Amino acid sequence: QVQLVESGGGLVRAGGSLRLSCAASGRSVSNYNMGWFRQAPGKEREFVATITWSPYTTYYDDSVKGRFTISRSNAKNTVYLQMNSLKPEDTAIYYCATSTRVSREDNDYDYWGQGTQVTVDS
Questions:
Q1: Most buried of the four, 50, 58, 68, 113, by CB within 10 Å?
Q2: Assign residue 63 a region: left if phi > 0, alpha if psi is -120 to 50, beta otherwise?
Q3: Do 24 and 3 contact (CB within 8 A), yes or no?
Q4: What percent of the chain has pLDDT over 70?
Q5: What whole-number distance in Å separates Cα of residue 49 and Cα of residue 96?
Q6: How many Cα atoms occupy the beta-carbon half-sphere of 60 within 13 Å?
Q7: Beta bridge partners of 92
Q8: Is 53 helix (H, G, I), strand (E, B) or coil?
Q9: Which pLDDT band, with edges at 50, 70 and 90, does 109 fall under?
Q10: DSSP string covering 18-30
Q11: Would you say residue 58 has pLDDT above 80?
């Protein structure tokens, strides 16, 4: 059984940083594509970033490019999302997900975590 558990969310002031973690079990993050999505109140879930299993490639939504960095630790079977220069519009529940495809579409991801709340105060 595949389980994804996010952590690291919280309240931060605009301009601050947070690092989200997604600990995986039942599936190796080194052999699957891993993604981060977010959902703000009243909005649809949207793509944030993804990291492919091979070759090691990362993709970002334009809204976070240059501010967020996705990475993984194969030894810890964990994926990270380093978020810098946070803005109030980054406020959302952030979800980790895994897929056998390289995709920005949430329908292509088959396992999801429970989410972690990120709130950016202006």
A1: 50
A2: alpha
A3: yes
A4: 100
A5: 10
A6: 13
A7: 118
A8: coil
A9: very high
A10: EEEEEEEESS-TT
A11: yes
pLDDT in tens, 62-103: 999 999 999 999 999 999 999 999 999 999 999 999 999 999
Q: Which residue has the tokens 């960095």?
A: 69
| Residue 12 host element (H or E) | strand 10-13
The type of residue at 46 is: E
The long-range contacts involving 84-88, CB below 8 angstroms and separated by at least 24 positions, are 84/17, 85/15, 85/17, 86/12, 86/14, 86/15, 86/16, 86/17, 86/18, 86/118, 86/120, 87/14, 87/120, 88/14, 88/120, 88/121, 88/122
d(CA 31, CA 33): 7
Residues near 54 by Cβ (< 8 Å), separated by ≥ 6?
none
DSSP letter (8 states) at residue 52: -
* Cα 60 from Cα 26, distance rounded (Å): 26
**Residue where the block lists tokens 């891993």:** 34
* pLDDT for the residue numbered 46: 98
Residues 6+ apart with CB under 8 A from 55: none
